[in-house]
Structures are given as structure tokens and as C-alpha cells.
Amino acid sequence: MSKKKEAKKIVFNSEKEMPAAPMSLGSMLYNKTGAWRNIKPVIDLSRCIKCGICWKFCPDASIDIVDDWPQVNYDYCKGCGICAEECPQKCIAMVEEEK
Ligand code: SF4
Ligand code: SF4
Question: Ligand 1: does its nearest atom lie under 6 Å from the Cβ of 70?
């Protein structure tokens, strides 16, 4: 199996170094897209059955499974609500973000 490449951060020292055309500013690992969110998922673990469906459906891979329990990574979650929609227990609430 080939070794996974390390993502490199792209740094511009001034706007003159920036490209004339739009481009992605490097890996999503460096772009904490959670700032885009205005609602966030909150999981009621007392009702969670550890099925992992939220983890499977999250389009941003923003749900980790820690000791079998789902945990939202708010650095990257964009608040799309898909996890809440798909949860069979309906134990994920989308709540307004405090700014
Ligand atoms: S709200 Fe969307 S991005 Fe955030 S954890 Fe749920 S599915 Fe993933
Ligand atoms: S989909 Fe719902 S019940 Fe299943 S692991 Fe996620 S939060 Fe728990």
C-alpha cells in the first residue's frame, strides 16, 4: 500500500503572489470550515444507539467515532443537518450557533 501524502499548507506573503484565477487554498485540514456554520448538530447521547449512521452520512467527515460514540468535530462541521435527518433515533438536534 502506498504511503499517504502529507497535505501542504499554501502561504502567500502578499496579494502579488496570489494567482489571478480562483483556486483552493490547500487542504481542508488547514481550512477550518466550521466557521461557515450558523446552526450546529448536538447529539443527545442518552438516546444514541451507536449505529454510526450519522458518521456514514456526514458529507464532511466531521463526525468521529470515539469509544463507539459519535462526536462532532465542530472545526469542520458546516451545519448541513444531514446527520440529524438520517439519525434513526432522531437524537441529533440542530441548534442555532451562538456568535
Ligand atoms: S451537520 Fe452536516 S457537516 Fe455537520 S456533522 Fe452533521 S452531517 Fe456533518
Ligand atoms: S445516527 Fe443517531 S443513533 Fe446512530 S450513532 Fe449517530 S447519533 Fe447515534
Answer: no
CA of 56 to the centre of ligand 1 (A): 10
**Digit-coded pLDDT (tens) for 18-31:** 777 766 666 666 77
Output the average pLDDT for the chain.
87
CA of 13 to the centre of ligand 1 (A): 33
Nearest to 44 by CA among 87, 7, 15: 87
CA of 91 to the centre of ligand 2 (A): 7
Helix (H) or strand (E) holding 94: strand 92-96
CATH code: domain 33-96 is 3.30.70.20
Tell me the pTM: 0.77
